[in-house]
Amino acid sequence: MGVFGHMRAILTLGLPLVGSNLAAAGLGVTDTVMMGWYGVPELAAVVLGSNYLFFFFLFGTGFANAIIGRVSMALGADDETQARRDTRMALWLSILTGLLSIPCMWYSSAVLQALGQNPVTADLAQDYLRIGGFGIVPMLVVAVLRSYLSAFERTQVVLWVTLGAVGLNIVLNWVFIFGHLGVPEMGVRGAALASVLVQLAVMGVLMIYAHRARGLSHVALWARFWRPDWPAFGAVARMGIPIGLTILAEATMFQMATLMMGWLGTRELAANGIVLEISVLAFMLHMGLANAATVRAGRAYGAGAPEHLRRGAFTVICMSLVVVALTITAFLSIPEDIVRLFVKPGEETAQIVLLASGLLALAAFFQLFDAMQVLAMGLLRGLQDTRVPMWIALASYWLVGIPAGYGLAFHTTLQSHGVWLGLAAGLATASALLMYRFWVVRGGGRNPA
């Protein structure tokens, strides 16, 4: 397959994944907007509770991310039995992780107060989590099923189901938060109940599709689901746990950046939040391409076709660089216009717009590094290579990114700009080391781990 053949295959696979990632982010946006309509204290509680839940979810998605590579490699080797075994054990691990997380949701107020949160807000967040926390099990099951279907290149259904979930979430929020159609007004509990019902609905649809869809039903994913497969269980755990820790390492770097912005001031914190939202939307494009790269690399690796793998890797990197160029151009040429989409006009927000516009220029600077690190990580996952990338991520984000951001922000005159330069330093380190590992150490798929 030539470069243009790879490009078509990556776009066919990757564009629905990009769309589903953006739609999944839309679930959080709709909760935030609708709770903002309800009340500020309730909004703060839902944001706090959602972020608390999200950390447990991020770790649990390590098993889902492991499945993309493992199932793709099994399919490349024409071994659907192994694909079924790995997916079942990933579901076991995800369900186990979710169940172990629920007590942490039930007693979350004490944890949040120990982290310095307002007691009233922490109690409201606990009210949210004592219902919404039960949604972590279906959330993690959905993550595994999305990966399973993506490895089979069934990304269109993932996109449409996720878009449907956004619409359902809006309707259920309207009913349960505000009290409509004869349902009592429930506030934060209503938002939590809506989220759980949406996740259960998505899980049910994907389970039925995986069981009955043409080309998938013969795999018999749910047959004898209760039967353990300890070799597959161990293999998925050994791959998924490092991926989960890698994802947490990057997420905590950005969380620490948010804390440092809060230490600098309220305006800095608000500006940081806006730029992070914009950056996440841009990042979703590269995340979709990285997921597609994992599938394509896994299939080529399983089929024993390293040249095919290298050509595909080169193609997806070039495609990502085009997106980077467009993003940088937009961030540098119209930063204030982009930022104003997120704030109401006024004297107070004018300073936030100015500050956020400066940070957006720095965000443009690290777009290249953010894109390359997630692509390299995706390609390495296609090769079943996760342990060393985990240590690279931990060192890059915790030993370079966070200390550099703190030092530049509080020991120079750069302040908020210093925090984002630290983020760029951490991402640059990770992208360089991960790309070196893929192209040099692993020879683009030629060399064993």
Q: What features would you describe in this structure?
A:
There is one protein chain. The protein is mostly helical and 449 residues long. The chain has two domains: 1-228, no CATH class; 243-449, no CATH class. Helix content is 84%, strand content 0%. It contains 15 helices and no strands. α2 (40-76) runs parallel beside α6. The longest helix has 37 residues, at 40-76. It is globular and about 60 Å long. 51% of the residues are buried. The model has no long low-confidence stretch (mean pLDDT 86).
Question: Nutshell version of this structure?
Answer:
By secondary structure, this protein is mostly helical.
Notable features of this structure?
single chain, 449 residues, mainly alpha, 15 helices, 84% helix, globular, MATE_MdtK, MATE_fam
Helices and strands in order:
Elements (H helix, E strand, L loop, with lengths): L2 H36 L1 H37 L3 H27 L1 H7 L4 H14 L3 H16 L3 H24 L9 H25 L17 H35 L1 H37 L3 H28 L1 H6 L6 H36 L4 H24 L5 H26 L8
Total helices: the number is: 15
Oligomer: single chain
How far from one another are the termini?
Answer: 26 Å
Annotation, overall tally of beta strands: 0
* Proportion of strand residues: under 5%
Give the averaged pLDDT, no decimals. 86
Order of helices and strands: HHHHHHHHHHHHHHH
Structural class: mainly alpha
What is the number of independent domains? 2
Output the radius of gyration. 22 Å
> Regions with pLDDT < 50 over 5+ consecutive residues?
none
The largest sheet is: none
Protein name: Multidrug-efflux transporter
Main location: membrane
Membrane topology: Multi-pass membrane protein
Keywords: Antiport, Cell membrane, Ion transport, Membrane, Transmembrane, Transmembrane helix, Transport
